[in-house]
Task: inverse folding
């Protein structure tokens, strides 16, 4: 178990024309952050030096050519490339997108090789990063392919956790994508991650309906009656605490979400609109279901304020802390499940 050692925290730099580099460097400009982890930023010393001057930061960093050379108590910059990169804050640029992928690719490889313990990703531009090597809707699908697993977008704060049955799927396709098999798989991932990553021994989960008012007994669509309800009942028959479907329009306003360890939304906006309304700037995007820990802030590149030294760093900082907490919880879970007798002394 790695509790006594400093956790190596890899960071992909994201789209350099956005706010990602700002929130990364300003987070670690606070030297106290180095008490919690050893950061390794996958980019280049040249670009970090340029950004340090642009944002008038006092941070000190060292360039390295291998993650194994990272030094505790220092900001480490892994030199993924040597050449200069032209930055035009706030602009979409496919060349900059290529460097966002180079950073992500190198950081992911380091994660696969156990050269870093966890990965925190700065925001990418989903359009400019597209290439023969990156043909995905976003980080989640790319990491699922590279790390091998059934990934799930899990938006988390201390008091609210929302998982998605479907994430980057067009609204017109959602009803056809949601199947009993998908429901079982996604709820299973959420149950497992609540146990191993958040120390919840018997998760209580709410599921939101697909249609308005969960279909009103089939009046507004039959998917809730014919697909969602039977799948939930099947899981409940196994003794699992899974409830719903709940009508999404009143679920959050009534604060019903506070009665559950996690909420399952049927589609992207159904989950992310209330999540970001309730916790924007403090929320974290965690990719559940993978063998490794990856988190990110709950926002995008924010081109409109890029380069202006105005970005809020709180969500990125939370993503760092959550990655560390989840890693430690998962290590503890592994130890406890491998040594069941130790469970008697476990504190929940």
Result:
């Amino acid at each position: 178990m790695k509790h006594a050692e400093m956790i190596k925290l890899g960071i992909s730099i994201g789209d350099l024309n956005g706010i990602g580099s700002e929130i990364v460097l300003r987070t670690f400009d606070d030297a106290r952050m180095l008490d919690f982890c050893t950061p390794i930023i996958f980019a280049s010393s040249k670009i970090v030096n340029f950004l340090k001057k642009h944002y008038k930061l006092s941070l000190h960093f060292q360039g390295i050519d291998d993650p194994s050379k990272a030094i505790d108590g220092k900001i480490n910059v892994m030199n993924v490339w040597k050449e200069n990169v032209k930055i035009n804050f706030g602009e979409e640029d496919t060349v900059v997108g290529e460097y966002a992928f180079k950073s992500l690719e190198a950081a992911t490889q380091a994660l696969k090789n156990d050269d870093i313990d966890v990965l925190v990703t700065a925001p990418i531009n989903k359009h400019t990063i597209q290439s023969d090597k990156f043909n995905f809707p976003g980080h989640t699908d790319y990491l699922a392919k590279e790390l091998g697993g059934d990934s799930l977008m899990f938006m988390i704060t201390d008091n609210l956790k929302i998982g998605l049955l479907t994430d980057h799927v067009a609204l017109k396709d959602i009803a056809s994508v949601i199947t009993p098999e998908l429901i079982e798989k996604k709820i299973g991932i959420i149950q497992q991650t609540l146990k191993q990553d958040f120390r919840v021994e018997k998760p209580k989960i709410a599921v939101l309906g697909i249609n308005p008012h969960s279909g009103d007994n089939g009046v507004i669509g039959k998917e809730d009656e014919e697909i969602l309800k039977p799948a939930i009942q099947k899981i409940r028959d196994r003794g699992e605490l899974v409830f719903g479907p709940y009508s999404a329009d009143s679920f959050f306003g009534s604060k019903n979400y506070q009665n559950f360890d996690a909420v399952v939304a049927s589609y992207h906006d159904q989950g992310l609109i209330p999540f970001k309304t309730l916790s924007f700037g403090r929320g974290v995007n965690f990719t559940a279901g993978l063998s490794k820990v990856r988190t990110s802030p709950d926002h995008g590149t924010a081109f409109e304020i890029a380069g202006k030294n105005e970005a809020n760093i709180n969500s990125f900082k939370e993503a760092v802390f959550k990655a560390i907490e989840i890693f430690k919880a998962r290590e503890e879970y592994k130890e406890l499940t491998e040594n069941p007798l130790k469970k008697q002394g476990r504190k929940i």
